[in-house]
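Margin note: ligand = glutamic acid.
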Amino acid sequence: MNEVRTRFAPSPTGYMHIGNLRTALYAYLIAKKHNGKFILRIEDTDQGRYVEGAVDVIYNTLNIVGMKHDEGPDIGGPYGPYVQSERQDIYKEYAQKLVESGDAYYCFCTKERLENLRHDCEARKMPFKYDGYCRSLSKAEIEDRIANGEEYVIRQRIPDRGVTTFKDEVYGKIAVENETLDDNILIKSDGMPTYNFANVVDDHLMGITHVVRGSEYLSSTPKYNLLYKAFGWEIPNYIHLPLIMKDNGKKLSKREGDASFEDFYNKGYLKEAIINYIALLGWSPGTEQEVFTLDELIQAFSIKGLNKSSAIFDPNKLRWMNGEHIRRKSLEEFHELALPYYKEVIKDADIDPMKLSKLLHVRTEVLSEIPENIDFVEKLPEYDVDLYVHKKMKTNLENSKEALIRAYDVLEKLDKWEEEIIHDILMDLVKDMGVKNGQVLWPVRTALSGKKFTPGGAIELAGLLGKEETLRRLRIGIDKLSK
Ligand code: GLU
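Resulting structure:
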């Protein structure tokens, strides 16, 4: 087999859509699985959509997630340039070849004419199709009109009859009647190629063996194959990927903050989890395994596992997976990641952040939620005494007050403030009072946090806060319950 070469060919839009990142990931996995090459090509021929800094977003994202490309604009390679706007002359040359062989032609139709044609098609409820008006202009006329400075485009000449078929690795056999295909534009009036042309020329010249891209290109692929045929080039393997949808049938949206890699990365999702999750959006490993590193994905990946039904993006599953990847990190690694989030809310509190990490490492699903979970450490929030009333724990205002007073007494006497000792002394107290664990631990936890949900229970919170602060908060609780 030839060397496997795949490419990621994003248009610089300014952000990395989850769907595009998934395309990149599958292209990467296919290349790496076969010890092949993963190429980055920037598709920037739509100059109207140019966004400052957009290319950096692409480099940064690939860099963060660890998908290293083997060839690309920044590192070069044998088939450069890898930026389409720098390849204009190449497209022109190949378009010219098609004109000469009769597979493409010059078209001088004005905007107005095309507009009318479009309206006609709409009125007949037909998709737009160019009517071939300029298909048979004479060479002399073409030369004249170009010399006169008339604007033109170059269009593909689609055969009037016949069927174009191909096999997609995901969607299977596709057959399209040529007469339904449009003589689409290959070179625009500004001299730039369309995607429809540039992708074919580049994929061929760059030796791409597997074209991985979104299924929105599936219906145009027959046109591309006609171009390959016109040039006498070998058609690559096609792997079109299904759309990613939300549960409600909607698309991921930038406005709702669930469309791009950055949306999740900035919210404190780990790159490993994002990659792992999107790998499973349309691919299944054929085993029960769900949690994978990038290297494990390379091992497990196979094109056969790709699915053609649209993938549903489930944010809860991503959360769960993020938690799993957090758990896979060592305590020290987690500590490093979590520290900036502690600093957001902990300013003066005298606590050992490592203790906090021990509590949070086993409980956190998304890093950005850390501040709201630990804000009580810095300052005891205002809370309502009703918080002490817990049906399952069998606590009410009276027995909570008693538990706090008794806990205060025993804790005050401790010389050494260690969790184990705190644990033993509170368990002794439970026994002494002849109550259930929860009837002491719930009130203490409430007094120490003023919150319903906390990372860790009474003993861990006391260990974290230290003796002085623990006693101070118990005192406040007792006062509240005495009113
Ligand atoms: N530039 C195209 C896009 O961003 C790439 C399609 C392809 O991979 O061929 O959608």
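Residues 5-84+244-312 form a domain with the Rossmann fold fold (CATH 3.40.50.620).
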